[in-house]
Amino acid sequence: MSLIILEGCNSQTLDLDNIDFNGNPHFEKLKISKVEQQKGHWVLDQSKNDVGLALSGTESSVQYTLITPDELAQITFNNLPLDDIGAKLATYKDKFAFARLSVDKSKTFDLYNHLKQKLGKPDQTFDSLAYDKNNTEVKLLETNLKGDIKIGKDEYDDEMVSYPYQNVWVKGNIIYQYTLVRAKNSFSNILVIISKEAFNDKIIFGYHNPQQDPILSKYIK
User: Fold this and answer.
1) pLDDT at residue 12 in the model
2) Can you say how many angstroms the Cα of residue 60 is from the centroid of all Cα atoms in its chain?
3) With CB atoms 3.0 to 4.6 Å apart as the test, which of 48, 57, 112, 137 could cross-link to 40 if both were Cys?
4) How far from 90 is each of 52, 67, 93, 158, 212, CA to CA, in Å?
């Protein structure tokens, strides 16, 4: 994998919500300091004592890692600004292949509601917490998720609120995965967008074992 440093004097901004996933998103127009040309797909490497991962084959992809505030400020999703934890983008066969990002946590539920409005009802996995109407997290869920939460009792007869923490939509060749991340008195988010082609071809590190992925495996069958 080779590293290219881009000066990017013609830096632009890009709303990922509006890109053509079947075309070239031209990420090279952004000012990004870490751009890696990747050759091959990820495979298990058993040539050493410890099993690891290595690149194999001739597939060509480009991986973009956004780290600094200036870099992250170039990307939005539905005009929502990104959080400061970093983001990753990738192209494969000159087409959009992957994005992993988080919008500003104050916009966490705005992102969820936008995705639901745009893509329809998601396939959801629920988590739960103890129900207390005065708890800040419960108030946030009741205010922002409305009909998407469920209040019931567990096996100990304690009142609980269940909320969708994993949400997946599949639209054509693109998989969207939105994770609602619980923190003390707040929620944040992670949005992953990946093409089925890049997923099946094991192009993206971290998503290189599609058959065993605990969340996304069933969406490629």
Assistant:
1) 72
2) 22
3) 57
4) 22, 15, 10, 45, 22
Is 203:88 a contact under the CB 8 Å cutoff?
A: no
| pLDDT at site 8 | 39
**Ranges in the chain, pLDDT < 50:** 2-10
Sign for the CA dihedral angle at 209, 211, 212, 218 comes to positive
* DSSP secondary structure of the chain: -EEE----TT---EEGGGS-TTS---GGGS--SEEEEEEEEEEEE-SSSS-EEEEEEEEEEEEEEE-SHHHHTTEEETTEEBPTT-EEEEEETTEEEEEEE-B-GGGHHHHHHHHHHHH-SPEEEEEEEE--TTSHHHHHHHHHTGGG-EEEE-TTS-EEEEEEEEEEEEETTEEEEEEEEEETTEEEEEEEEEEHHHHHTT-STTS--GGG-TTTGGGG-
pLDDT of residue 211: 92
Q: Which sequence spans correspond to the domains of the chain?
A: 2-107+166-220
pLDDT of amino acid 2: 45
pTM of this prediction? 0.92
Q: Give the type of residue at 182.
A: R
